[in-house]
Structures are given as C-alpha cells and as structure tokens.
Amino acid sequence: MKCFAAFLFLVASILALPVQAQTTTFPVGATTITVSTLAGNLAVPWELVWGPDNFIWMTERGGRISRVNPTSGEVIPLLTVPDVATSSEGGLLGMALHPDFATSPYLYIVYNYNDNGYKEKLVRYTYSAAGTGSLSNPQVLLGNITATTTHSGSRLLILPDRTILMTTGDAQLRPEAQNVNSLNGKVLRLNLDGSIPANNPIAGSPTYSYGHRNPQGLVRAGNGLIYSTEHGQDAEDELNLIEPNRNYGWPTVEGNCNLPEEQAFCTANNVRAPLYSWGPTIAVAGLAYYDSPAIPEWRNNLLAVALKASKLVQLPLTTNGSAVGAATDFLNTFGRLRAICVSPQGRVYVSTSNRDGRGTPAATDDRILVLENRSYVALPTVAAKATAFQIWPNPARQTVFVRLPSPSASSGTAELSDALGRVVRTLPWPKGQTELSIPTNDLQSGVYAFRLRDGQRQYSQRVVIQ
C-alpha cells in the first residue's frame, strides 16, 4: 500500500506542471477581476503562503511541500514529509514561514502521523536556498496531539511578537474542546522554539482560546486583530474574533448564543459569539485579509473560501474590526475551495480541493487560481531627493540608516532585497516614525534594494553593502 501511494504521489509530482491559462472574469463593483489558472494537476493543496522570496509556498495533503513560481506557475518540490499519514481529512495541513526568514530560515508545518494511534504535531524545518532549495533538520515543537480522520484543524499564524498560533479541532472528542488542559478544540500559542510563552492566559499551558470545533482559517488583519473561520456541525459555520482566554462555546453552543440552553451557557462561561455565521454550513476553510488598492472594493475586507459551498466570500470589516457587514459571494464555478493568500501586488491566489474525495475534479484539478485586476497600475515610486529621503552610509558595512522627509503617515514595512529580488531583511516602520536603522553586518557584499511605502508615497533606493 505504501509503495502504491508513493507511486501515485510521484505521478502527481510529474503532472504538476504549469497549465495553459484560460481566463474568466467577474465584476466587483466597478472593478473587473480576471481569473486564470496558475498551476494545475495538484493533489489537494492545503495551504498557500506568500513567501519572502516572492514565491508561493504550498503544502499538499499527501505530504509534499513546494514553491510555486507566481509568474510561470512552475511547481518546485522541496520535500515530501516522510511520516505524514493521510486519512480522510488528515495529512499535511497548515504552514507558516519565520518572519525573519533571511536570518532564521525556518518553515513550520502541522500534520497527522501514526504513533500508537493517529496523532498530530507541529514541526519546524530548516530551509536551504542552495540549488532549487531543500528542507532538512525537522524539530518537533509540539506533538502527540490526539487526532482522528476528521476535525484536525489546522492553520498556523506567526504574530509580530514572534509567537505562533496553531488551531486544533476537537478530533470528534467533543467535551475536550471545553477542557483547557486538552490540546483539542483550541487555538494554541507557543514561542517559535516550541516553549510556552510566559504571558499565555493560563500559566504553563499553550491554550490561548478554547471551545472550538474545527477551525481552519486564521489571519491577522491590518488592525492587529486575529480572525478565524470554523466548521460548524449542521447549523452554523463561524467567523470568530480570537481573543485570549475566551470560550467559543463548542460543543454546547454552535454559532450564536440564540437558544435558551445556549444563552445560559454563554452567560456563565464568558462565551464569545461569532462575528458572522453561515447557516446551513458551507464548510468555510481558508481566510485572508485584503487591503490592496488593486481591488479597492475589497480593501479592509476578509476573504474566506468554502469547500461545500464552493465559493469565495467577501466580508467587509468595520473601521475598528469588531464587526462585519453584509457578505458577498464570488468564484462559484470552480468547485471546492480550500486555501487563499494575497500577494503584495494585490493578487489573490486560491486553491481548489476537488481531489479530496468529496468533489468532482476537472481534468486539470487541483489548481491554483489567480484573481487580479489587470487594469491596475501600481503607484509610481517617488523620486527621492537627496535632501528629503536619505540613506547613509552608502556603501555600508555594519548598519544602514534611513530618514524620511516627514513622519510616516501610516505603519508599514521596510525591506532590503538582494540582486535576485529575495527579501533578506524586513523591519516594521511604525506610524509617525522618521528614522530607522537596519543592521547589515551579516549580509553578503553586493547590491541591494531598499523599499518603503509611506501611505500613498513609495520610496526605493539602491544600497551597496561592502
């Protein structure tokens, strides 16, 4: 059986080549969105992450991790995780990349495996960019999580404080979702080395929030708030605002606290009601935050994709992010949709999941679809005058200093990229700041590009590191 499975996976790897893009369009307000296929012949892509190398990083449920060229659609395999055990909904699931990838080239994945029963674990791999790239040195950060063939979660999200959130399903052990000492039915929070943060809501415990059934979407929005999409049982799927030490009700509460027995439980147990719910269930899965001017109608919106309902859902956030407006549905002709990510250029990438045993696959499924506004032209880079926008010393050795002509109008990110376009240093640029120092002593000699967007202005300049 294992040999046969390996053969099937090899065939899938060979077939996972770029396919000829056939386009369709749909309107979003006054904007026309073009949909095309970036890559096809994939095997249940479960996670899509936009990487610091400007490639899409992808997991497939059978165990393969790849990089996908967003221009050509070429799929570049990195590793097939050897001990992934697929069973119904289980297998290789969520993934995250270390935010300081240039200096800490770590990739985090969560997957199911067999060890005296079906289990789940969080593992860190080390990436090497040599050649076509490789992953090695797996380190188990959290393991031995009880699992079954359904309700495993699991998405990963790294926060600015360098902690990682991991969602887990209840593994069909419904009461465990309310047990704060259990790892099931939770959002867990760990340090990036697997230790438990000292400021977790429960001392010595990775539990961050509890009372979850099967959360499969997780994102931090521009407002700093954390949102999750969660599979309900029959009546209601949920969009939740995740807060530390909050109870989300399952299994006593599904969706809103609107039944008499639910209302009593919610009052007594500090239950956080969902921001939005779908009834009947749509099997809502991946979740992304969109705030690019490329599609202005989607700015400050959450975008969720659904499996059973086969659609993309737009969920507009209020200014403070504490509520959502009326949902709008799109992209309902491609079958089951599981994962979603957004590029810095405002393109949206969505994966189909028609080969997961519950869909009707097309000839080129599974696919990664690209949604883009082809009429959008990015704002031109502001030509920085020597007296207004300064970078010094240049050439530099130990540190590069940057000064803006006036305080930044909004928070953003400053980046250094090497000559191949790979981001090697990323630093936050807080609102109101005028200066920043960037350490460069660990960078190789060469020519680099500095980029910063300050509200409606953009700055870029060449930097030489000696």
TrEMBL record:
Entry keyword annotation includes Transport: no
Question: Is this entry keyworded Signal?
Answer: yes
Swiss-Prot/TrEMBL keywords:
Signal
Q: Which residues form the Glucose/Sorbosone dehydrogenase domain?
A: 43-358
Task: Tell me which residues make up the Secretion system C-terminal sorting domain.
Answer: 391-465
Q: Which SUPFAM superfamilies match?
A: Soluble quinoprotein glucose dehydrogenase (SSF50952)
Give the signal peptide as a residue range, or say none if absent.
1-21
Membrane-spanning residues where? none
Instruction: Please give the NCBIfam families that the UniProt record associates with this protein.
Output: Por_Secre_tail
Supply the PANTHER family for this chain. Answer: HEDGEHOG-INTERACTING PROTEIN (PTHR19328), HIPL1 PROTEIN (PTHR19328:SF13)
Entry protein name: T9SS type A sorting domain-containing protein
Organism annotation:
Hymenobacter jejuensis
Q: What is the lineage of its organism?
A: Bacteria, Pseudomonadati, Bacteroidota, Cytophagia, Cytophagales
